[in-house]
Design goal:
With about 625 residues, the protein is α+β, with helices and mostly antiparallel strands. Helices cover about 55% and strands about 15% of the residues. It has 16 helices and 8 strands. The strands form 2 sheets. The protein has a 6-stranded antiparallel sheet. Helix 3 crosses helix 7 and helix 7 packs antiparallel against helix 14. It is elongated and about 150 Å long.
Amino acid sequence: MRRTLQKPLSLLLCALVAAGPAAAGEPFWQRWTPRSAPPPRVVANTPRLSQVIGVGPVHPSLVAPVALAIENNLDVEIQRINLRIASTEITRARGGGATRGLNYTLAEAPAGVGGPVSTLQTTAQRTIPGTSVSTNPLETGALGQIQSNLNLLGAIPLSPGPALPQFDPVASARTSWLHQTVPQINPILAGRPTLVTETWSAGAAFRRGFGSGALVTAAFDNSRVDSNSLRNNYNPYTTSSFSLTITQPLLRGFGFRVNHRYQRIAGNEARIADLLFRQQLINTVYGVIRLYADFAALYEDVRVKEETHALARKLLADTTVQVEQGTLAAVELARARAQVFSTKLDLEKARGQLEEQEAILKNVLTRRGNADADVRAVSIIPTSALEPPALPSAPMEDLLAEALAKRPDLAQAGLQLANADLGLEGSKSAVRPQLDLVLSAQNSGLAGQLNPALANPDPTFAGGYPTALGQVLRRNYPTYSAGIQLDLPLHNRVAQADLARDQWMRQQLAVRIQQLQNQARLEVEDALIALRRAQAAHEAARQALVFQQESLAIEQAKFEAGASTSYILIQVQNAVSQARSAEVAARAALVKAKAALERATGAILEVNHISIDAARQ
């Protein structure tokens, strides 16, 4: 019996080797061992953060926050994992499995508290402006993230179509032992009143699917039977057989294009995952530029509020001296004191907004946010004041063409449409009848010991297992068959409904892509309008600040000469403070407007010299 099992087991080993080599340096048995993915990188920040933090406050330019966000931002890390998930889709499809789909959800950076908000003031107001203090940034959405799902098909995918062949070959082996005792109704058949049979069996099989839809199955079976029957010519005896069966679909599920559709879909999904990664980079880089511009503007606005508060305190000191000298009425002293506390409130509000924006910015640039003591303790100080950026000179038609060519969200939408077309091939194939060509060939062998209880035993099959195996190899006793099997659904409503639905969903997808293209053009046009408006607002704010400062100098001289009152001087100081805040806000708005245009055209990564290959790591 041991020799009987040796052959099928050796064939099984040969089949395993034929299934393909293991990965380089990978033990062979790991094909059947569950593997664990490495844990997500959410604990430690990249070394760049330690280099930036160093000792004391951080003085980053815009380049450092963008680089830190690409390395540490968790939204970007999620899309890095999505790239690896897409690679498993390719492996699964090559093995004969359907794709499981990707996560198309992308995130935007939090809105933040915004920059300094101050209207452009060209005349001194006759009333002291009021102020308010925000108590909960969560209610304004400053801390939350906006998520968008770019999956145009929604939660309901296309129909799966006909079943795929199993491209991964499967090898199997079996062995069994049976002892059976059966009382005989007619003892003449076995020559004994009770038939006792002991059977050993062993076999191996190999099956594999092919791109044409064919399924090939090879089976090698062996058995050894030992019984107490007096009527068998051979006892014990051995049987052996080798069979090959080929089933080839001729209509439904026929053809390489249909059966390889998921491999092409998986290839498109890998490209989609890369485009989603690029889009997340765009979202994150734009969000960091926006948050940093607001932070830099808030930082400058705090300096403005500090200077305004210092002027109010100086005015209080000057007014106190003049009241004591009797050159001013006592009411002017009350007004000066009120101005000190009003500017103090504005200063504390500006500092609070700066701290909130700093906390949000740290959370975007690091993996653990304020859970990291070093990150929590460090202060961010902009290296320089916001500078008005250089504005693009290209005509709108060129910018629209650039957006349609470069934007990753539009490119991935086109690949989703291509995948829908591939899915339709399966839906169309599923409508056809099931017509299969079945071919089979089998070789058999028989050998055993001659039964001495018989008077004239037949020596034709006398021998052991090698004799039976030799008959199989020489094809002494072949069996061949060929046939066609037809499975014809008389109504076929399920397949027809699936095909109709998939065609309508494909048309919906095409309309949705047109909407995305229209939206992209609108975003470019709106960004250009916003950029021109921001440029005009900045120029107006800059000019207004110049004239307000001239007005303050004149009013200050008049006040010192006793020709003006503290009330009027306070109004002019308020106007200058508002003008300075408005100029800072206008500069930040101009930076953000330019970044919005670069995002709308898909050029923001290129403009900021971001390497996609480096960002993937």
